[in-house]
Amino acid sequence: MSKKQENYTELAVEFQNTKTHSSFTRLYHKIRPGLKYYIKNFVKDGDVTEDLLARTFEKIYQKIDTYKPEYSITTWSYSIARRECIRWIKRERNKTISLSYFNENGGEVVENEGVSQMSFGLDMYSDDFITENEAWKEEGEEITKYDLTVKAINSLKPMYREILVDNLFNGLKYKEIAYKIEPKLGALTEKFEAGELTKSEETKYNTYYKTILQRVKNRVRRGKMIVEADVKAQMKCATC
């Protein structure tokens, strides 16, 4: 008999009530892939993604008592991730403000989490002009779209699903996916790079490599088209 899968809310409530390492670990592994994908799409930087992901889980661990089970744990955790992403974007944008602009417009250098930043009295990138309910609605729509995307990907045929998961969630490049679906391609590549193939074998290798690579690209492209169409239809249906 297969073990019953715990849902997101059950895991969050268990950790909230017990504060045990094991309950946090299960919650971590359940929501990590989605959070990583969300953050990576936000900041477009792999190294920064890992840093912000760690900060997000630190906040989740610290603030779990503020979580209310009537809300989705994904919405709550993605809100934390979104704020961490925005803080990072603010810091990066502040770094690009030139010293001449600072001198011309006035301001002061302030310390924020150990980083010197220029403050002009008005935060151009803040969310202060939207209400909390509006923020929750906006984030809720984002999470709904994400959840529908995951559902659509899981509904794909294996030939599309596995490649799309590797590309979108695991961050594998087309070349890495090609080696994964065709293990012998990796071995041939090693021989090719080592100069161990004859001219005839090199020609066959190049054709074989391009064929597998194009197959991966086509499946990713086709899979994305199917998912996008499915999500669009589901979102439209939800507003009917």
Task: Give a short synopsis of this structure.
The chain is mainly α and about 240 residues long.
How does this structure look, described?
By secondary structure, the protein is mainly alpha-helical. The protein folds into 2 domains: 8-97, RNA polymerase sigma factor, region 2, helix turn helix motif (Rna Polymerase Sigma Factor, Chain: A); 136-238, no CATH class. 73% of the residues lie in helices and 4% in strands. It contains 10 helices and 2 strands; from the N terminus they run αααααββααααα. The chain has helices at 8-18, 21-43, 46-63, 73-96, 99-105, 132-154, 158-168, 174-181, 183-193, 199-238, and strands at residues 108-112, 115-119. Strands 1-2 form a two-stranded antiparallel sheet. A hairpin with a 2-residue loop joins strand 1 and strand 2 (115-119). Helix 1 packs across helix 2, helix 2 packs across helix 3 (46-63) and helix 7 (158-168) packs across helix 10. The chain is elongated. The protein starts with 7 loop residues before the first helix and ends with a helix. The model is unreliable at 96-132 (pLDDT under 50).
